[in-house]
Amino acid sequence: MRAAGTAIIIVALSSAAHSAAPQASPVMIVLTGQSMLRSDLRTTAPAAIPGIQSLLEGEVKFTNLEGTIAEAGQTAQEGRGFLAPPAALDALQTLGFNLLALADNHAFDLKGVGIANTLREADRRRIVHAGTGDNLAAATSPAYLHLSNLTVALVASASGLIAPGARAEAGQPGVNELRVMAGSQANEADADLPNGSDNTPNADDARRILQSIREAKQHADLVIVYQHNHVFGSRAFSTLFSEGMTERLAPNKWLTNWTHEEIRAGADIVIMHGAPLLHGIEIFRGRPIFYDLGNFIYNVPPTITYIDEPIAWESVVAKLTFHGKALQSITLYPIVLNPIGEGQPDVHNPYANNQFLDTRGLPSRATGAKARYILERLASLSKPFGASVELHGDVGVIRVSR
Fold first, then answer.
1. How is 129-183 classified by DSSP, letter by letter?
2. How high is the pLDDT of residue 327?
3. 47-66 per-position pLDDT tens digit
4. For 376, left (φ over 0), alpha (ψ -120 to 50), or beta?
5. Is the separation of the CB atoms in 111 and 124 below 8 Å?
6. Nearest Cα residue to 300 out of 282, 284, 312
7. How close are the terminal C-alpha atoms of the chain, in Å?
8. Which region among 96-100, 245-249, 387-391 has the lowest average model confidence (pLDDT)?
9. Angstrom distance (rounded) from CA 318 to CA 30
10. 89-98, 303-312, 388-397: which has the minimum mean pLDDT?
11. Predicted confidence (pLDDT) per residue in 260-290, tens digit
12. How far apart are CA 359 and CA 342, in angstroms?
């Protein structure tokens, strides 16, 4: 479904698309920003459910769970505790999500117990997920969503701000980490590093993840590759954002090079979160790269001020239409999130969970001047990647060839 006057439409025109054998019906893949969810929205914000569902019409609905599942009585003892009850997964299912990335820097907020909780509860609900596992092989492995006429694979990883012990190992549960090197030094995005060394993916991690993409390509019609990234240069993530540096508005060069490698390995769609801001779009070899889709649900504590800026509360929902394996179109719907929740915030306790937090950062469709502003900003961010956006009122079009 398309809302008049509030969408950017990317139309892929290619000989491959036209020559592909048509399916009985098209398949729509819906991609959103990250979901930093703290509660079961069915009970904490039931009135918001229908509006959010209306943004997510399609057969495949993808998001990243920014956090970890905690059972009753379990609390974080150190760091920021982005914790959610098991019923939060029921809320995501009620919204329609059926494909979930679990790889991010908050997957380990409850340490190994949280990894186990999240895997167990997602499996109980038969939500297809990737990016964490009981060991490195499981965390790296593709996950497969089987539709009646299409199989979609997901490979998920995370870079930067991965806590010590959070990386999955041969005998240890955790996150599928793509480490980033600045010369011979690891760039964890937790400290300012000296300028002069370009960022590059760790060679062992890169080989492992690219092999997972190749494996997925052998067993699926379409391969989605997800990355939760916090490495934007030589500065710490908190420095970039608390100082408002321009590097926060675009991917670092290492990331554009890396995503191109992922597409060469077989990725059909690359999507990223982590900034968490809307970044530009590139069409590389006829396949889309969403350098950051920002936030979709943003229950961020008011104590974390450096990522609380107006543009963090704006994004788009991407709807990709496929006929078989051929991409036909991408439609992007601007959304806004409410920075003010119900009730009173707790601006002192980063662990507090209350009505304000649970009802903060919920998406609704942007309209009018706000929608056009988001689209114009997206057009500007996409232009450096060669994506030329034609604006017609509140609608923009990018035409590309494979």
1. EESEESSHHHHHS-EEEE-SS-EEEEEEEEES-PPTT-B-BTTB-EE-B--EEET
2. 82
3. 999 999 999 999 999 999 99
4. alpha
5. no
6. 312
7. 26
8. 387-391
9. 6
10. 388-397
11. 999 999 999 999 999 999 999 999 998 999 9
12. 6
CA distances from 334 to 4, 271, 318, 326 (A): 12, 17, 9, 25
Q: Which two tokens stand for residue 226?
A: 């997800």
Q: Could you report the per-residue pLDDT of 147-193, keeping only the tens digit for each?
A: 988 999 999 999 999 999 999 999 999 999 999 999 999 999 999 99
22 Rama sector, left if φ>0, alpha if ψ -120 to 50, beta otherwise: beta
- Asked if 91 contacts 37 with a C-beta cutoff of 8 angstroms, the reply is yes
**Residues in CB range of 260: below 8 A, 6 or more apart:** 284
The model's pLDDT over 115-133, given as tens digits with 9 standing for 90+, comes to 999 999 999 999 999 999 9
Domains plus CATH for the chain?
Answer: 28-315+324-388 (3.60.21.10)
DSSP-derived secondary structure for 255-320 = HHHHHHHHHHHT-SEEEEESS-SB--EEEETTEEEES-B-EEEE---TT-GGG--GGGGEEEEEEE
Q: CA-CA distance, 260 to 398, in Å (whole number)?
A: 20
User: Which residue's entry shows tokens 């059972």?
Assistant: 71
Answer whether residue 1 shows pLDDT above 50: no
Partner residues linked to 136 by β-bridges = none
Residue 381, pLDDT score: 94
pLDDT of residue 401: 56
Query: Per the structure block, which two tokens stand in for 87?
Result: 């019923």
With CA atoms as reference, report the closest residue to 63 among 100, 107, 27.
Answer: 100
State the Cα–Cα distance between residues 170 and 189, nearest whole angstrom: 25
